[in-house]
Amino acid sequence: MELRAWRRKRENAVSRTEISIEYGIQIKMRMVGGRWAMEGMVGKGYRIDVGRGSGYISFLRKYTFNGMKRLIDILLSLVGLIISIPIIIAAGILVRIETEGPILYTQERVGKDGRIFLIYKLRTMNSNAEMDGIQWAQRNDSRITKVGRVLRKTRIDELPQLINILKGEMSIVGPRPERLYFITEFSKDLPEFSERLAVRPGLTGWSQVNGGYELSPAEKLEKDLYYIENQSILLDIIIILKTIRILVTFEGAR
Q1: Residue ranges per domain, the chain?
Q2: From start to end of 58-161, where are the E strands?
Q3: Mapping DSSP to helix (H, G, I), strand (E, B) and coil, where does residue 131 land?
Q4: Which helix (H) or strand (E) holds 29?
Q5: What's the whole-model pTM score?
């Protein structure tokens, strides 16, 4: 779906109940002229009206989904951490043996509603990887260490982000969190890029299992918006299963 088509679809869908919740970041409900009116951070000046009473049903559906999703996040991240602690320790020792520098790498990322948080990763690059400034990672990036290349292929470097999920900063499934610098840069040509902040960022996501690192920012945005518009427990399960296949086949790593 091209972005122009997506914009038209969103504009034409404003009268539907679903749109009021899908993009509501801070939702307020009140009766206006016998109709439910919801105001959210879909965009500046947006005001979404839905049919009488139907807005409340959509409101309940959305928050039921969010509650279930959060419960699944907590359970999976707890189990994942228990299983992965020995793996993280072993990988950390290898990281430290190969190169000097910290084992864990923290970096500011932008989460839901634009909140800044520190993401945790096992370090896969040289300590001076950004001595020439912020750079977008490339395939066969020379800054990546030998151990780091293996960690990236197996996604072991992402395991510490289970802590971010437990803290409520991330979800198992959602758009990957980006740095503020890249969001600012991409938004110059893709104004909708900030729409990705309507949901919690994820450890994996629709764009990761459908192109991953090979996608351009525009292609990544298109797939992330598709997920936001169609998110459900079933879609999350499909993404998790696709992620497992990618982990087994080492697809999409850089």
Answers
A1: 62-249
A2: 104-110, 116-122
A3: coil
A4: strand 28-32
A5: 0.72
Q: Mean pLDDT throughout 68-97?
A: 94
As a whole number of angstroms, the distance between CA 74 and CA 82 comes to 12
Helix, strand, coil percentages (3-state) for the chain, rounded to 5, are 55, 15, 35
- Residues ≥6 apart with Cβ < 8 Å to 250: 153, 154
Q: Residue 128 corresponds to which tokens in the numbers above?
A: 């001076």
HSE, CB side, 13 Å, CA atoms: give it for residue 231.
30
Q: What is the DSSP track for 186-237? A: HHHH-GGGGGGGGS--EEE-TTTTTTGGGS-HHHHHHHHHHHHHH--HHHHH
CA 150 to each of CA 94, 99, 209, 243: distance values in angstroms, whole numbers, following the listed order: 11, 15, 19, 17
SS3 240: helix
**141-158 mean pLDDT:** 85
Report d(CA 144, CA 254) in Å as an integer: 9
Q: What is the DSSP string of 32-73?
A: ETTEEEEE-TTSTT--EEE-TTHHHHHHHHHHHHHHHHHHHH
**Measured distance CA(252)–CA(254) in Å, rounded:** 7
pLDDT recorded at residue 68: 92
Query: Is residue 123 within 8 Å of residue 107, measured between CB atoms?
Result: no
In contact, 22 and 63? CB cutoff 8 Å: no
pLDDT at 122 over 70: yes
Phi, psi of 134 (to 5 degrees): -70, 130
Measured over the CA atoms of residue 160, residue 166, residue 172 and residue 175, the dihedral's sign is: negative
